[in-house]
Design the sequence.
């Protein structure tokens, strides 16, 4: 199916705001009205159709609306892909009626940030056409944060927490070993890269009582996932200054790594 045909069909096909709609004898339903997926994961849009005369349904296709790129295009009697956009090659698959009758669910493998957008499913017969729109958001969980430690010329300890690979910008919080929130004392900035990935940097000064534990946490509230780094200042105010850092995932509260910082 050409892009011109898809564009013309878009003008005459009835749009549905709900995740299921019926046009005459043709019924199409999708289980989700919108979806969120992580970078590197698989996107699964579950959609089914029902038609009284199955043989009269001539074709279906999945299209990315922002680019009008064809993700998957097929007739009901022939599983050929047609003019598929090269960026979806070997990544897109559909359960058509040959595998499970009425199932037009789309699976897109190894999702990237560029896969974010609106997906359109079109089901076409000689007398009727129908399309369903599904918005999809793609998010990226960044790397385990790392805390860098240094002391200013005035003797004030400074902690700098950094992490790359985020989209969108995560929430950043600081907490001390007593469970007290210290986020309001931090200065946090985001640094955007050319590919849309975000690098986070948060700096906090420990003006008083800096011996103890300090946890920097970065969290995506939409996915309910967070990563953290615990920094422990064991001895201060003397010739010895020993610092221990432990990286962990908040969801499981697991220490993944331990490093020792030793300075005179």
Sequence:
């Amino acid at each position: 199916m050409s892009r011109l045909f898809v564009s013309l069909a878009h003008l005459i096909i009835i749009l549905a705001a709900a995740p299921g709609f019926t046009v005459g004898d043709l019924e199409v339903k999708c289980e989700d009205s919108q979806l969120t997926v992580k970078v590197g994961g698989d996107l699964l849009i579950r959609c089914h159709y029902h038609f009284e005369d199955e043989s009269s349904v001539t074709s279906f296709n999945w299209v990315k609306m922002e680019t009008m790129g064809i993700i998957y295009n097929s007739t009901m009697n022939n599983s050929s892909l047609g003019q598929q956009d090269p960026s979806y090659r070997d990544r897109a698959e559909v359960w058509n009626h040959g595998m499970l009758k009425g199932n037009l669910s789309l699976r897109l493998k190894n999702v990237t940030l560029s896969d974010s957008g609106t997906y359109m499913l079109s089901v076409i017969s000689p007398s009727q056409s129908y399309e369903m729109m599904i918005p999809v958001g793609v998010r990226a969980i960044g790397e385990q944060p790392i805390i860098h430690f240094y002391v200013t010329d005035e003797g004030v300890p400074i902690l700098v927490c950094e992490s790359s690979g985020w989209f969108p910008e995560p929430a950043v919080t600081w907490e001390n070993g007593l469970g007290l929130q210290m986020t309001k004392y931090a200065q946090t900035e985001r640094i955007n890269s050319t590919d849309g990935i975000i690098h986070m940097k948060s700096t906090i000064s420990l003006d008083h009582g800096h011996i103890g534990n300090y946890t920097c946490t970065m969290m995506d509230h939409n996915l309910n996932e967070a990563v953290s780094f615990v920094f422990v200042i064991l001895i201060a105010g003397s010739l010895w200054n020993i610092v221990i850092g432990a990286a962990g995932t908040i969801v499981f509260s697991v220490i993944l790594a331990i490093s020792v910082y030793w300075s005179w």
